[in-house]
Amino acid sequence: MKRQNTLYIALALLLAFSLPSHASDVVKPVTAKADAFSYCPAVSTLKKEGMTWRAPNNWRSYSDSFVKEAKYFLGAQWVGIKVGKIICLYKGDEKLTFPVALERNDVLINAPTTNKNHNWQKDRGGYMECRSTDVKDCPFTIIKPPPKKDIYEQLDFYKQK
């Protein structure tokens, strides 16, 4: 039984990490103008609710925090392959606490660009870091979902094929 479970796990990992040879054509990054960038929430907008944190536009923490007041922006992390999510990190004055990690699970983010105007470091195999005390140093681009269409129009489209 143990050998069979190991086989299933190995097969699942193989399938999960195998991409088609044309994977770079499947997911294409969206280019954005400078004014289309988004940023982590400003420290002043963070609110503690119980043991978790929130900020406007669906930013929230998913783990309990012992930080009493978020005072400093530490930077951001992007996690993904071509598209992913952003995690914004903040800290308070407490010395023995983990940083407050805010994220949005309702959007996808393109891999940030690395250039001299931003603090994003190179991709380290599925994640990138931006270390700064200013949220404007860590811009990112939210992928806008395609417009929603009427389900009946979509069905008619497939019916004609």
What is the fold's blueprint, element by element?
Layout: H1 2-17, H2 23-26, E1 47-49, E2 52-55, E3 59-60, E4 72-81, E5 83-91, E6 100-103, E7 108-110, E8 127-131, E9 142-143, H3 151-160
Antiparallel strand pairs: 1-2, 2-3, 4-5, 4-8, 5-6, 5-7, 7-9
Explain this structure:
The chain has 3 helices and 9 strands. The chain has helices at 2-17, 23-26, 151-160, and strands at 47-49, 52-55, 59-60, 72-81, 83-91, 100-103, 108-110, 127-131, 142-143. The longest helix has 16 residues, at 2-17. 19% of the residues lie in helices and 26% in strands. A hairpin with a 1-residue loop joins β4 (72-81) and β5.
List keywords for this structure.
161 residues, alpha+beta, 6-stranded antiparallel β-sheet, 3-stranded antiparallel β-sheet, disordered N terminus
Q: What is the helix tally?
A: 3
Overall pLDDT score: 79
| Biggest pleated sheet | 6 strands, antiparallel
Rg on CA atoms, Å: 20 Å
What is the molecular shape?
A: globular
Q: Tally the beta strands.
A: 9
**Regions with pLDDT < 50 over 5+ consecutive residues?**
1-35
Into which percent range does the helicity of residues fall? Answer: 10-25%
